[in-house]
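JOB MANIFEST
job_type = single_chain_structure
chain_count = 1
residues = 502
[input]
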Amino acid sequence: MKSLDQHDQQQRQLEEQQLLLTRRHFFGRTATGIGTVALASLLNPELFAATPSGDGAAALATHGALPLLHFAPRAKRVIFLFMSGGPSAIDLFNYQPKLRDHHGQELPDSVRQGQRITGMTSGQKSFPCVAPMFEFAQHGQAGTWVSELLPHTATIVDRIAVINSLNTEAINHDPATTYIQTGAQQPGRPSLGSWLSYGLGSENQNLPGFVVMISQGSGNKTDQPLFSRLWGSGFIPSQHQGVRFRSGDDPVLYLSNPPGVDAASRRRMLDGVGELNRVAAQSFGDPEINTRIAQYEMAFRMQSSVPELTDFSDESRHTVEMYGIDDSGVDGGFARNCLLARRMVERGVRFVQLMHRGWDQHSSLPKQIRGQCKDVDQPSAALVKDLHARGLLEETLVVWGGEFGRTVYSQGALTKDNYGRDHHGRCFSLWMAGGGIKPGMTYGATDEYCYNITQDPVHIHDFNATLLHCLGIDHTRLTYRFQGRDFRLTDVHGNVVNALLA
């Protein structure tokens, strides 16, 4: 009788256990082993760094989701100098001398072709063409046309490729910036830096693989905001999102220990929190818990690596002056950020994004664009020169450009010494330099109104496909499955522009 009671009790316990073990709980516990392996690989990737077989295969191995690069890379890292607001290519790179003959005249309907324009100028009764009031000259062996506004950039034209035929469907800032950064006009996709962090991994375990820095320019002080989702990871693991560095004594928010907390106390706290998180990971199998543990460990290591990174005391006076760093702070931070970007890529940071606000010049363009160009011209050129002098340019891809260009017609009244320009995505300019890019060339052409592309268009997806190609990645094969679909940076479009490759 007693044996039967024990049997009934055991049977009831088994039934209770089966009721507790729901389908979701079962799969969560099953995934715990995978999460543990993932965490170990994050904290010590060398434990999982198997050397692939085959000649040259080891050189193509990555620390990211791609086990091997698709072909030999020309670049290992990227510095994207993003000119937020839309620089006017008409006034900077796309020289059209015949435009002076059309100054003040109405933009012909045959040129506009009924194309969509923004609500800021759609109500205008007149669309007078505006020729740039700045002089252009040819520079370098290739005779690249550059505006007088960019004298320092003119000295590096033999090391850069100017693209005058970039184009996008977006005509407003937020969708256009989101488009070039993530490959889609709608929010929610991973940013370019996140894709690279995910696919290639990091070369430095003491610094983030993706860093963002923002500076305010001398132009439009009320320029559109820049949202953190522009360097977000979207639907791929959050460890790949960009880390924003700020100016001042505390470059990364909440990184420093608060008063009364020393390094030993912080270490004990992290160990305790880590144990709690590991218990939660075993119970729920959520990979984001393991990501959180890895991010806490990264932050702890950054407490020593970031102060060393941001300390310029080991830089020569010549280098500091070459970048145009002004101790008074009038450079708006961009010059300092350029030097920081060089120091970051030296230490293996995969993707550095410098975002400089103030290029949205709907009015007072002649005055505002002078200040904007003074902000960025010398530091941008110094960055290319510095990377070249240190042997880093060949493996670092540098990009300079914004989300779209500006219209040939004036926004608002056109006067003798003042005008504005609206957004224009049909054609705009951008330059690239370094790893894998053919230097000393101008690619693409537009009509004499700088309104439509007449030769070699480069779409946003083509640009991103080419950038990934320089890093050894086939843009169609760097994907992430989400909600039943394989997503990629270039969506379902994009072609590598082979003419831009060295």
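[summary]
Residues 26-55 have pLDDT under 50 and may be disordered.
Residues 59-247+333-500 form a domain with the Alkaline Phosphatase, subunit A fold (CATH 3.40.720.10).
exit_status = 0
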